[in-house]
C-alpha cells in the first residue's frame, strides 16, 4: 500500500471519531491533513454537519475555501474543540517534531487553543525517540536579524548542527507565513529532556517558537502499510 493511502486511512479515522456537529475544528497543515479536510467536506455534505474551521497556515486556509467549508478565526473562536494536524515525528512519549512545512508557529498557537490535539500520520513518523526516523532536525522560527546569535547560542547549549532553511524556488532563506526565518537544528543527543530544551530555547531573545510539541497531543493515528490504523494515546 502506498504512503498516501496510509495517510488517508489515518486521516479518515480521526475525522470520523473526533469531528462532531456544532464544533470548532482546527485544520492543521501538511500532506496528511489534505485527506482530513477531504473527509470533513464529505461528512458536512452527507450529514449536514455545522463545523467552523480555523486554519493553521495559508495552505490550510486554501484547503478550507477549496472545499467550501466555514472559515473562522481565533478572534471569534478563541476556544477550539479539536485540532487535527500532522507531524514529522512522534516519539513514545507523544512528543512531536513539527514544522517541516514551516507552519510551526501558527500550528502551536492553534494547538494551544484546542481542547484536544489529534495527530494523523503514516507509519514512517512513528518513533521510539525523536531523531530515530526524522533526520532534518527540530525547526526553530526566529526573527531574521537574530538568526546568527540564536544559532550560536543553541549550539553552545546543546551541540549538533544548525542550518538556515533555504527556499526552493526563491533565492535565499525560507520566509514563514509570519515573515520569519527557520533554523533547522540537527541534534546529536536523543536523550535530552525535550520539555526543558523547548523552554530554554524559547528563552533566547529572537526565538519566536520551536517545533517541539511537548505534552500537547492527546492521540495519534498512524496509517499502516496494510491499510490498518495504529492508535496511541497520551
UniProtKB/TrEMBL annotation:
GO terms for cellular component: cytoplasm. Its EC number is 5.3.1.6. Pathway: Carbohydrate degradation; pentose phosphate pathway; D-ribose 5-phosphate from D-ribulose 5-phosphate (non-oxidative stage): step 1/1. CDD domains: RPI_A. The keyword Isomerase applies. Keywords: Isomerase. The keyword Isomerase applies. It holds the Pfam family Rib_5-P_isom_A. GO terms for biological process: D-ribose metabolic process; pentose-phosphate shunt, non-oxidative branch. InterPro entries: Ribose5P_isomerase_type_A (IPR004788). One of its GO terms (molecular function) is ribose-5-phosphate isomerase activity. It catalyses: aldehydo-D-ribose 5-phosphate = D-ribulose 5-phosphate. It comes from the Eukaryota. Belongs to the ribose 5-phosphate isomerase family. This is ribose-5-phosphate isomerase.
